[in-house]
Amino acid sequence: MSAPSKTGGDPRGRVRDAESVPRPRGGRTAGRAPGPSGRPGARRSGWTPWLYLAPALVVLGGLLVYPIYQLGLISFLEYTQAQVSGGEPTTFKGFGNYAELFGDEQFWTVLVSTLVFAAACVVSTLAVGCALAVLLTRVRALPRLALMMAALGAWATPAVTGSTVWLLLFDPDFGPVNRILGLGDYSWTYGRYSAFFLVLLEVVWCSFPFVMVTVYAGIRAIPTEVLEAASLDGASQWRIWRSVTAPMLRPILVIVTIQSVIWDFKVFTQIYVMTNGGGIAGQNMVLNVYAYQQAFASSQYSLGSAIGVVMLLILLAVTLVYLRLLRRQGEEL
Hints:
Elements: H1 11-19, H2 42-45, H3 48-74, E1 77-78, H4 81-84, E2 91-92, H5 96-102, H6 105-136, H7 141-156, H8 159-169, H9 176-181, H10 192-221, H11 224-232, H12 237-248, H13 250-265, H14 269-274, H15 287-297, H16 301-328
Antiparallel strand pairs: 1-2
């Protein structure tokens, strides 16, 4: 009769055998489940991208967050030249500046002018930039290089210099444009709409290179087989752009549209230089120039800050609504 096993039928023996199995070092059991990413310590690595972004976030916090905080704070105070010089104490005014601003009829006139002018600039800039981007894909290397260099030269020109050059081109006495068009001594900056049109031309001239270069890079990234297939199917160039190229470029078009909205909505230099501070009786005033005149010409710094806050909220609202509409259409941004 064979000898009974060491643990045969005895639960205590099996417990002793299990205790005799060596365990891994560090007190961890061999069957412990790994972390979410399949390796220990993966949870700690989630902070690594934020560590790399920390210097940029600190810089952005100093350049954006703090000025916006100060802008909002001043908009709730009574802050004029008397408070700046220390002659009177700074007092909390609450929403009094906004109530005064919204009760001013000139503010609403300037707001409507700014919205219409910015919309016209954005549409014109996108149209010219996209058309020239398509043209770059149709011309040879040398004309393409010449057009790129000319566009980048316009883009690199300071706004003050570009505005002065356009004023000289359209000068009623010495400008070549009036002579070519046979307009005599017609003053482009005298009328409200002609002055806005002249500023729009300068804004488009210095803004379309960004759209052109960005859209051109996007077009070059589209597989040529897709465009060739559409052409072989008999589609016209406009049909190819509307049905093939534009949908594939939609993420890029979102970027250039938002950038154009921000830039054109806060135009200041072109209006201030070309219309001499907003035109006759302020007929060519936009919100940026209006805020400048309230803050520095009239020493109403709190009122100028309130206008700045309103502009910021409008830009945020327009951007968020635009992105929301794109997300509803199923676009990935």
